[in-house]
Specification:
This protein has about 280 residues and is of the alpha/beta class. It has helices spanning about 20-30, 45-55, 70-85, 110-120, 135-145, 155-165, 185-195, 205-210, 215-220, 225-230, 235-250, 270-280; strands at about 5-10, 35-40, 60-65, 65, 90-95, 130, 150, 170, 175-180, 230-235, 255-260. The chain has one domain (about 5-175, about 235-280): Alpha-Beta Barrel (TIM Barrel). The protein has twelve helices and eleven strands. The two termini are about 25 Å apart.
Length: about 280
């Protein structure tokens, strides 16, 4: 199984968001265990390969390849190419996405099962893949058919519930958004769009947040302050680090930290450097 370490960085594979081979090399130097390639990266996984080529030991994971965008055969071929070149350093994260973004989206659970069946047939090992999972049914499937679960846009309470469902064996690697800003109003100004767009309009995220006890009022108008504060940890580096560690205390094996840099991108490295000093002793 790929060793992710306790703390990783999560960045979307979009232009302007700083996810480059140079950033991966710096993350490795700082002591992070994994670079998560977010934002539905292409199934050819060329960016994953570039990040691995530029580093020597840090793991790279996808968070996640969308099952509707790239067929299992294509993704399996890419997996084997990368695993042969960089053994034990790549975790293939796959997921179903959401219905609002996919015209052909239907019967999500059946699609997940059939996709995992196809990965099995193509020789992608269970230990080499993880599944995006929020609700109990898919969390349980993640524990049965993959190395474990990669939940997105969650809280330590979700992590606690997910661990109860998964049991003690499978991987649990949630994503956690953070803003390094001590002024709550300024922090929320940056954090709210990262929660609202598009997640609060998507049924799977709405359903998960209601499962965690948030009300319709919390989900309305871009999200209540309570919801935004819970989903995007903000404050100085020590405060943010405590919010990240809360997932580990709740049962996570690894936390993928996303430094929110604002709409359109920006430089996340100063934030990751500041957190490394507190979280990793760098």
């Amino acid at each position: 199984m790929v060793n992710l370490g306790k703390i990783g960085i999560w960045l979307p594979a979009f232009p302007g968001y700083g996810l480059t081979p140079e950033l991966a090399a710096e993350a490795e130097r700082l002591g992070y265990g994994t670079v998560w390639v977010g934002g539905s990266p292409s199934g050819d996984l060329r960016l994953v390969e570039e990040l691995l080529d530029a580093t020597g030991s840090i793991a790279v994971a996808t968070g996640i390849v969308n099952m509707w965008s790239d067929g299992a055969a294509t993704v399996a071929e890419s997996y084997h190419r990368i695993a042969a070149r960089h053994p034990d350093r790549f975790l293939l994260g796959v997921g179903i996405g959401h219905p609002e973004a996919t015209a052909t989206y239907q019967r999500p659970y059946d699609r997940i099962v059939s996709y995992l069946d196809e990965l099995d047939a193509a020789g992608v090992p269970v230990a080499g893949r993880a599944l995006a999972a929020l609700g109990p049914k898919v969390l349980a499937l993640a524990g049965e058919r993959t190395a474990g679960a990669h939940p997105y846009l969650t809280t330590p309470e979700h992590t606690r519930r997910a661990r109860e469902i998964l049991g003690t064996g499978p991987l649990l690697a949630p994503e956690q958004k953070v803003v390094l800003e001590t002024d709550p109003a300024k922090a929320r100004e940056l954090a709210r769009p990262a929660v609202r767009d598009p997640y609060l309009s998507l049924r799977n995220y709405q359903r998960n947040l209601r499962w965690l006890g948030y009300s319709d009022a919390d989900l309305a108008d871009g999200g209540s302050d309570r919801l935004v504060d819970d989903l995007v940890v903000h404050g100085d580096a020590a405060t943010v680090a405590a919010g990240v560690r809360a997932h580990l205390d709740a049962g996570a094996d690894h936390v993928a930290v996303q430094v929110v840099v604002g709409a359109g991108g920006g430089d996340p490295l100063p934030g990751y450097r500041a957190l490394a000093e507190v979280l990793l002793g760098s």
